[in-house]
Every structure is written in C-alpha cells, then in structure tokens.
Design a protein that fits this description.
The complex is a heterodimer of chains A (242) and B (549).
Chain A: E1 9-22, E2 25-38, E3 42-47, H1 53-60, E4 68-73, E5 76-77, H2 83-92, E6 94-97, H3 109-120, H4 123-143, H5 159-171, E7 177-181, H6 189-206, E8 209-214, H7 217-220, E9 225-230, E10 233-238
Parallel strand pairs in A: 3-8, 3-9, 6-7, 7-8
Antiparallel strand pairs in A: 1-2, 1-4, 4-5, 9-10
Helix pairs in contact in A: 3-4, 3-5, 5-6
Chain B: H1 2-13, H2 16-52, E1 56-60, E2 66-67, H3 69-80, E3 84-101, E4 104-115, H4 120-123, H5 133-137, H6 170-191, H7 206-217, H8 235-239, E5 268-272, H9 274-277, E6 278-280, E7 286-288, E8 295-301, E9 309-316, H10 325-328, E10 331-335, H11 336-343, E11 354-355, E12 357-362, H12 368-378, E13 384-388, H13 389-392, H14 394-432, H15 434-442, H16 447-478, H17 480-491, H18 498-501, H19 512-539, H20 542-547
Parallel strand pairs in B: 4-10, 5-9
Antiparallel strand pairs in B: 1-12, 1-13, 2-11, 3-4, 3-8, 3-12, 5-10, 6-7, 8-9
The chains are: A alpha/beta (242), B alpha+beta (549).
Amino acid sequence: MSESHGRGPLLSVHGIRKGYRSGGGTLDVLRGVDFTLDAGDFVAVVGQSGSGKSTLLHLMGLLDVPDAGEVRLAGSRIDHLPAARRDRLRNTAIGMVFQAYHLLPELTALENVLAPLMVRHGVLEWLRTSAAARDTARSLLDRFGLGERLRHKPRQLSGGEMQRVAIARALVTRPQVLLADEPTGNLDEATGAGILDAICELNRRDGLSIVLVTHDASIAHRANRIVRLAAGRVEQVDPSAE
Amino acid sequence: MYKLLLCWRYLRTRWIALASVISVTLGVATMIVVNAVMAGFSHEMQTRIHGILSDIVFESHSLSGFQDPQWHMEEIRRAAGDSIAGMTPTVSVPAMLSFQVRGQWVTRQVMFIGIDEATHAAVSDFGRYLQHPENRRQLSFSLRDGGYDTTDSQAEGPGPSRPALGGAGWQHRRMRVERERIWQKRLEEQEGTAAGVNRAGPTRPIDAQVDAVLAATGGSAASADTPAPAEATPAESGAGDSTAPQNPFAAARPEQGRTMDPATEQFTGVVPGIGLASFRDSKGIDRFLVLPGDDVKITFPTAGTPPKAVSDTFTIVDFYESKMSEYDSNFVFVPIAALQRMRGMIEPETGIASVNSIQIKLADGAKLDEVRDRLRRAFPAELYAVSTWRDKQGPLLSAVDMEMAVLNILLFLIIAVAGFGILAIFFMIVVEKTRDIGILKSLGASAAGIANIFLGYGLFLGLVGAGAGLALGLAITWNLNRIRAAVEWWTGQTVFDPSIYYFFKIPTIINPITVIWIIIGAIGIAVAASVLPALRAARLHPVEALRHE
C-alpha cells in the first residue's frame, strides 16, 4: 500500500462548509471543518448521527464538492478539479469502503474486486493487463480468506464476506488513503471485529493511511487519533486514542 | 472495459429487456416480410406491364392513326439513332368480342390490337405469354393442330390444370364443325327442309360491309373491284422489316363471297387474353368458354369519319396470358394487315397503310426518358404522343410506390413504439440500478462512462433484436408460401387467391439495401431510445445514488 508512512499531511480539509437545501432553507451540515490526515495515520471520525461524518468522508473522497473550503491531497488542492480529474483521482488514489458494502450484484466477487481496474482501463489495455490484475485481486481475496469464493455473486456471500470483498476492491488500486464509512455497521459484533482487525492491520502492517467514520466509541479507539464532530464542527481531537 | 461487461451482464440478467428485444425483432421481421412481398408484387406487376408494352410507345391521338409507318420509323431512327433496338407498328381500336356459350351469346368489351407477328415479339415479351410452345418461339396466326400447354407454362412448379386445352386446335375445330353439321342435319330432317344458309359454311361479309360503309361516308375504301386486301402483307402495311413473313392466313382465308369449309379452313386468327375466355373453378382448374379452333365475332369501328361499326368472324388460334388481369381480360390480338384492311386503313392508290402506334424497343443501356424526350422534340406534340411504358402506367406505378412508402412509415412506427418501450424499460432499469451507478462513480467511473453503459446496452438490444428480426424475417419470407399453405389448411380459408392475382405463389423479392436500412433504423431507434435514460444515469449525483434505496 502507501509508502508515505510518517511523511507529513497526506489528506487535509480546511474550512470546509457544506449545506443541503431542505424545504425552503438550507441545512448546514459542515460549518467550517479543519482536519488533517498524516501519511500512514489512522484517524477515526466520530459523532452522533447527522453530525456530518459521512458528508466529510464524501468530500474527502471527492464524491461531493464543498460549498466552501478546500480539500488537499499530498499538498495539492483537489476539490476544484474538473470532474474527469476528480474521477481519475478517486479511481487511483482513494479507496472507499461503505457500511452497505456496495458491491455490484451482477458481478462475481473477483469481478467486483477487479471493477476499479476495469473502470481505469479501456478494452485493449485491459486485455493486456487483466492477467496481472486478476493475480492481484486473487491474492487480495486470499488474504481476506475468500480464496474459495471468487466466483460467487454478492447474494451468495455473508455480510462479513461482502465487506471483505469491498475492502479488497478498495485496495486493488493501491490507494494512498482508505476512507471507511461505518464498515462494521451492518455486521454482528464478532464479524465486525474481524473486519476491524483487517482494517487495523492494513494500517499497521502496510502503513496505509485510513480515515474511519463510526459512531461507536469502542471501534474509534482502535484508531491512532479520534476526531469528534458535533453540529458540523470539529469539537475535539483526541491525540491518544489507544 | 466495465461498460462491456455490465452491458453483457444486464442483457443476460435483466429479462425485462427481452420485451424490448422481442418488439424490435417483430418490427424488423414484419418490415422485411412486408417489403419483400410488396417488392415482389411491384416487380411482378412491372414485369407484366412491361411485358405487353414496349419501352416507348409512339402513337397518334386519333383512332384513324397516321399514314406511312415506314417513314415514321425512319424518322424515329433518325431522331433516336443507336438507342433503338427494334420497332413494330400496331393498330388498336376498342371493339366488342362476342362468342356463343351453350347457345347464349357472350359479349365483352375489348381492345382489338393489330400486331405484326414477325416483329412484335422482338419489342416486348408478348411471345412468352402464349399457350402453344411453337407460338412462344414464333407467333403464327394460323391455327395449330394441337399441342397447347395443359398447365401454366409460367408457373414455377405445378400450375393450374387446363385439361380443355389438350384437345384445342384443328382437332377441336373439326369435331365442333362435325357436331354442328350433325345437329343441323337433324334439325333439317325434323323440319323437313333441305335448305340451310350455313350448309356449305359461312360467307365473309366483312369486305362488303367495309366497302358499303366507307362508300357511304365518302372514304377511300376499296371498291368491289379492288383486289382482295388479303394480299396486304405486313411489309406493305408498314412493318418495314425485310424479315416480314408471308401472310400466314392467306391460305386459310376464303375468297370474298366464297363459301368456306370450317372443318379445313379458318377465319383470320386472333389471340384473345385468357381472362376473356376462361375462369378458374374452386378446384383451381381453368375452365374455358371457348378454345383455340372456335370462332368469335368481333365488332369494331372503321377508320373513317365518323367511324362506323363493322364486324367479322375470327378464329381463336391461341390465348395470351400476361397475368395482369387488366390485360388478360381486355386485349385481343389480330394480324395488323388484316385489321388495317378491315378498318379501311390502306390507301387504295398507293397501298400505304395507316397505324395507330409504333412500339419501340430500346437498345441495352439506352435511357428511357432521354429517348422519349428526343422523340418528343422531333415530332409535333399536337399529332403524336410519345410515352414510356412507365408513363403509360404512371398512376398505377405511383400508387404502388406511394402505398409502399406509407406502409413503410406505418411499419416503422411499430419499431418506434418498440423504441418507446425501450425508453420506458431503460428508465426503469436506471432507477433500479441507481445504487450501482453510485458505486461505479465511487470507483472512479466518469459520467460519460456511465452513459455509455446504457447506450451500449441499447445498442446491444438493438443488435440482438434486429439480428433476430432479420433471421425471422428472412425465414418467413423464404417460407411464405409454405406458411400460407399451412394457414389455409389450418383455417380452411383462402389466404391468397391465385385467380385474383394470377400468381400461383406470393412473389417476394428481398432487397439487401432495404434490409440494411431496416436494420440500421431499428438499431438507431434502440440507441436513440436509450439516450435519455443514459443521460439521466450520467447525471445522477454519486452520493444520492449511493443512498438510493
């Protein structure tokens, strides 16, 4: 994964504001958030429902654009880039994991993991690189204990298995940062713990920079740092989560 | 790459899309079949129209025609040069055809057409449509001994049976005359009278009639002393061809006023359209009211002013069957020289004859309209009408073209309806796949990439639907007559009545260009129908899409 462990800020947001039109007015979800993720860091963002955790994650993942403020990746501002460049960055530099897994139901586990690489490459380039990509995807699925489930469709997998496929999919592009939105939210405690272990190991063993959004304090404490959001602002930063 | 994979997976897993595929398939198949049948009918009709009409018809506005066809043909050749492959003069007048069926007189209105038997076949397909093989090779107005086809020579495969034609010809004539004589004899015995005007055979009243009529109108008819116009050969009457044969019916024609023996002699030969003399019964067998060898009476106007009606007896020597019922139940062909003589169209002093029209066949590669226009410039329009065979049947051909165009528009609307089906189904699929679209966007897929999935999906549906429609359409077209037979057997109803169309099978022609346009149209509509859903998918906000339930 990322080799930029401990080399300064990797992903940062400054003065981020984001509101949604609701009825006749605007609902301000984020009201000037500053946040920094260092390379190789593992930060948990916690807060109550509606505090803007997921919105912040979406803005960092370039799935949405802020009303004000800026998002920087490795020092370069990325939020105001043209759509095509943001799509490209999302594909190459950022891996995302969601609470609802978000696997494509028509594709097998292996194909789901390969999907970001297929998005990246055209047909001819894919034909040239597909063998290597398949090897990478297989080894990732092996690593998450899904070596026997390559050809299974998502509906044939359990929740934990689907989330592990989703993590493998997020890692297949060798992203600089992994953004995880309540990755254990839909799982039972034991399965969730397994998923959390896998995510923590990605940070510790591979040095992958991770932002984990959760409302569960016990999960947040597995991170290096905790950022607490309340009413659209960073309320508190706990530098010693562990 | 993901676009192709997803298109393929959606095609395999979204069975609702099959409804779109089926509607495209049926639309394409219907259009292919209908176009093939319409093209087949149109081609058959044009072939038959062209079969009787030469490429260009040069004619007089007057029923009396114009004099000296030989001079006219030389002028035509001078004006049109190398474009002319052959010419033949014709005389056509409206006439009444009468014959007896079981003692009852049947009278039909006909077009009586004098043709030069030597040259007429060269300018049109006339010869192909006769019932005697020898006449098809070279027309003769002399009655044949027998050998008329007992099945339709133009039918591919078994045509309708015509057993009556097996005995036609001299044999039939002799038997009929014998029967009439026996009948006459019995009648005379019963009535105890020995006298009978027809005992020695009929006399020819025509020459006396023509002379009397023309003399009365001050025309230049042959006087009673004039040599019998029977000597007027086709060459004299303007056929203008050194290969013109000897008058074939001279031997059979009795001298003026002389009695003739109908068992061994014939009147002037005529070739009526087969529709005038026959009908098809419920078993598909052609029944004949008269046969080659029978005599008919024809009444027609003379060339003088005002025209007077004259009539004469003729012997049927063959039947003409173009399979255009308009022609087959309207035309009666006769040797041009005989018709010119009977109508008083031959100048007695000079022997120069008049004709109504000159049929012109063009050389290969000559342009129809161009030659027509050259001839129109060369001859005064007040006296002559120059028209192509297409001009002659212009309204009919235009009507067929119009019908085909309207039908195609209507049928294309079927595919357009299929297009709206695709539109609706695609919108549904976009809604159903909203979350997947969000997932793809979160993985870095661009808006264009998302749009391409649905455009590609539409293209796939169009290709599969059009491909299946092509296969189905061709299969139906190639087996249309078998399907027709099966439907007729199943329902007991006649789907396609050959007696109406004079075709024994539904004619079909598959035009590859038409098929290609149909397929391009169907695929185009499928893709066009997927544009709006594709744009909607492309514009979905990734976060909202991911949250879609």
